[in-house]
Amino acid sequence: MRVPLATADPVGDARELHRKGKASASANRYLTATRILRQGLALLDQADADPVGRLEVRIRLLMTLSFCLAETQGLDDGLHRLADARGEIAGLPEGALRDELTSLVNGVQGVLLFRVGRIEEGIGYVDLDVAHHERLLERTKADGGDPTPVVQSLITTLTNRGNAYGEIHRIDNAVRDLDRAAELATEHDIPLRAALATHSLGNVLRLAGDIPQALRRYQEANRAFRELEPGLLLRLGIDQAEAMISVGLTDEAGRLLDEVLPELRRQRIGQDVAEAELYRGAAALADGDLVLARRMARSAQRRLVRRGSPAWAAVAGLIELRVDALRAVESRHSSPSVLRRALELAARLSALKLHDQAKLATVLAARMEARHGNVDSAAELLRRVATSRRFAPIDHRMLLRLCRAELALARGNQRAALAQAKAGLAELGRMRDRMGGLELVSGTALHGRELGDLAVRLVLESGDSPATAKRLFTWLERTRAQLYRYDPVESTVDSALSERITEVRQLSRALLRARLDGLPTAALEERLATSQRDAMRLGWSESPWGKPRPVATADDIVPRLGDRAMVSFAASGDSLVAVVLAGGRIRMKRLGSVDEATECARRLHADLNALAPDHLPPPLMQVISASARREAEKLDCLLLRPLADMIGTRALVVVPTGALHVVPWGVLPTCAGRPTVAVPSATSWLFTTRADRAGATGVLLVRGPGLQAAQGEIDRLAGYHRDAKLLGVADARVSSVLDALDGVELAHIAAHGEHEPENALFSKLELVDGALFAHEVGRVRRPPHQVVLAACELALNRVRPGDEPLGFAGALLAGGARTVIAASSRVGDKQSAEAMADFHHNLAAGASPAVALADAIAIDPLRRPFVCLGSG
Predict the structure, then answer these.
(1) Given 97, 129, 184, 561, which is the most exposed site by the fewest CB atoms within 10 A?
(2) Domain CHAT: where (predicted)?
């Protein structure tokens, strides 16, 4: 270390270095802070005057340094420096300064213990710090002094204690401390302290299970930190990611952690790096990336052991154990070493008072025993696991249900196994009912995936009778597309979200211009992605998405079908099955391979995309068309032809699964000229057909920019509708279109569209002043009854766990639209215009949307890959 030059006022200079070092530490720049603080200590070695001032500054430097060392080198190094500070205090005379520094040392020691999971021990120290500051604040007010410095310190220590109470689920105490901290910060105009308290309150709400409100607090803190102290965004990102994982948004959590980890590593923030790696491992585990999950967990564990954080290290070890236990469960051979590790880790976690985590390790051990036939041992292990507490993470609760179901199955009790699955999915549903925002509602399905798969497999094992078909249908409706079984409540877009969506729109246009001009786009693409994520996260903190409807049963559906047939597809492993409701009967048919159907659907989709351009050379068109017809024929033979005797010539309502959501059904020979609608679930279809149709009037026709055929198309369509309102290119602005969509019966939008695979709710239609996003259309107060999207690939494109299809059309259906006509593949401008002219001609003649579209598609099915979604 460079020895500083002698100065005229070493104590004053050291005090200034402490101020700078503390500021760097507050912004998580611990390495910089450590260097500055050590310079201050070296300066004090030269001081021989003002012994009290010298000792005071030395103690302050040591306290701040202790925290920096604990973060970058380990708890023992931090506590060692803090013990030095405590020893130095004994050299101060009795009085206010000695009391203040003693209180600060207590506070710092409490925080250092909190950081490594020794919560109860740390609270004892922080209680002393809080009591001191409360007494000091009362004296300061009584004496008429400036309370600001005392208030700042009191806010800090209240926030620290509130965080700690949250970690041990003493929620009332946590909220009490954090609310008081925020009130004091607001009263005394200390915005950064208020933001820190808000961040902490988000953590407490997350631990209490109120994820929407937790995410709202995080976004409030995010806005404040960006303006006041961007260095704090790193820690906030870790907490946001943990909340995302808890509701199944593991891909989004993974992306966020991949953003913050490089900077955390660069700054060598030991505890935060380890926690970020731990949660990155948890996200990878949920996504099925076991290699990344193990690598992240092991790295986190090594860091935490070095830091002297046994509790956190044990939690990281639990992630690695989950990887190994999953592999052991899937193996046909028992794994005594993994079982032994699970039991040892459960004991260690219990000793550390991490009871939820200890239960999870025990459940993992029980599941391995049940899978390998050791039912008595499994049952004994589960008896050790009491009913999960209210605050246990939802994935822990679902795994416990799954283990109980598998144990019942191992004992030959299928009824008990299905009862566990039903109870688990109901519990997950109650959690979903509290969620706000489309992505949050759909994300929760991840945690019920294994329970749903188990239930479907068990039902399929019981034969192919009508009774089995009926049970299977009910289970499919319990597990799939839960997002669409809500009556959406009227929501408003707050100013922050509105501003962010406007920013996304502006960046989208700037990016398009840059691409057209051949300019570099990397920086714009990064800004756009960040802005999209911010807007989406703001949407998560809404009030609950809507009022849940009951899950439909076959008895509910059959009377509504009339002379139509419903085909509900399901997958179990690589086996595809169809449940058919037609003619008052319910039957099932086992089909072929899921993988084969998926590959056929993928190849057909690629061929249709290749056929889209308006001016393909005829020889190329013939070759691609022949390939597309072959794939359509194969898919038809796999999916529909085996059902011919069940469906006859009836109109179809299709409930797809997985990759089948992108199939343009009118292209398949069985559906040629046959009215066919695709729906996310039978439950969603039932309620769109029952919905009261009063209150919607008129026809809206919108023409976006850049479509050569759109001018004639819109004018032509207007001739079919007397009451049509036209918005030409110049008038088709985002705000005008959104206003015009409200309460209209039929809306037709001819505009270039683009599906956003990484963020489906920012799939868009291009209007004259920028993009109109699915995120916005889904919030129209009175959604149109029918919407026609004469654009590319805006049907149900992105399929999340639980067969939750999201995209532009999905946002419309979830927001209350009854029927959506959209393309599932690319489509040329000319072909789109001709198809839509035929469709509207049929509508004007009195045909229903499903019939009108079927007739329009039949003219040239390969180049008109439109689907009818919803009620039809």
Answers:
(1) 97
(2) 630-856
